[in-house]
Amino acid sequence: MAKKPTITSITSGYASTNTLNDNFEALRDAFDNTLSLDGSTPNSMTSDLNLNNNDILNASRILVGGVDYIATALSYKNDAETAKTAAETAQAAAELVYDNFDDRYLGSKASDPTLDNDGNALLDGALYYDTINTVMKFYDTSTSTWYRTTPTTSDQANIDIVAGNTTNINTVAGISSDVTTVAGISSDVTTVAADGTDIGTVATSISNVNTTATNISNINTVAGISSDVTAVAGVSVATTTVAGVASNVTTVADNIADVTTVASNIGSITTKVSKSGDTMTGNLLFDDTSKVLLGTRSNLQIYHSATAIAASNIKLYFTNGSSSGTMEITDTDHTISVSDTVRVDSPEILNSTPVTVAGVVLSSLQQDLTVSATTATTFTVPITYASVSGSDGFLEQAGTY
């Protein structure tokens, strides 16, 4: 029924009851099709209520099936506001987490970064993906260095080698204490490594090494006199010679007290002239009664006269052992004259510098002058040698006296 009743106008016959009744019934039916303000019945909807985008104002409750939807809506509203606050808190937390994550993981880059994505200092352990080497890297603040999280190709090759030697590695792990001991003597190990060839040689002679081990006490004794061993090594040839005269060594050992006495006077012995020949490092002084005897028959003697002579007239004496065979050389004013009265069978006068013999000048080459006699005789051979100042010459006389 329409909300507005259809009312018939009475234009005439004001006493027409039918028309009035029809109007009143129309009004009644129209009121029955409306909602009452005081709740009078009927007051319930028999169809949808279209508010046409208008509000319901000041409703304390909206009951639908016994449920107060205003109260429910208010509860939902409060829950929504609480959720909103929680969401905002969660958002801030999420943003903080993301910022922290963004500071830790810097993303993909073509080179090692020096600052994080916010322009701040890098954090210890920060990560980024190296697009050039296609590896993940992490940052170490203690060294200010980016390190790879995966090995390089060469490192991986080394790892593969190690992986292929796990048996040996496990064996080494089982003797870790020995490895630690070796590490403490690494310099010695390096020395031994440099002697690998010698060690190989020793390995092929292990029986000799074992023999050495059984004589270790003797070896220790030798080690205590290593300086003596070194001295002996320096005279190995002489040692071999000594080995060939072991019996003589034994004899020396039996007379060790005498050897010790000689050793205590070795300083005096080493200053003596050797009979087999020696080099003088100082003057050899003979007194006036001592002579130098040359030859098994003492044919030539050199000695100093006890008679004092002038410094400008020095005489040297040579003798054949008898007073009648004296050769006197006199130096007067740098002129040397030689006079000799001897018995000669075939004397030879030799020279290596120019000498005038009986008016004959010999060359600087060695020459022989022979004076012969058919029978033993006594004669005088005068020889003069004109010396040159600042030069030296010598005169030899050879023959049988």
Radius of gyration: 71 Å
N-to-C CA distance: 195 Å
Main structural class: alpha+beta
Q: Name the helicity range.
A: 25-40%
What overall form do the CA principal axes indicate?
rod-shaped
The average pLDDT is: 75
Catalogue the unreliable spans.
Answer: 311-326, 338-401
- How much of the sequence lies in strands comes to 15-25%
Tally of extended strands? 18
Number of helices: 14
Question: What is this entry, summarized?
Answer:
By secondary structure, the protein is of the alpha+beta class.
Question: What do these coordinates show?
Answer:
The chain is built from 14 helices and 18 strands. It has 401 residues and is α+β, with helices and mostly antiparallel strands. Among the domains are: 44 residues, no CATH class; 81 residues, no CATH class; 37 residues, no CATH class; 108 residues, no CATH class. Strands 7, 8, 9, 10, 11, 13, 14, 16 and 17 form a nine-stranded antiparallel sheet that branches. Strand 4 and strand 5 form a beta hairpin. The longest helix has 36 residues. The C terminus is likely disordered.
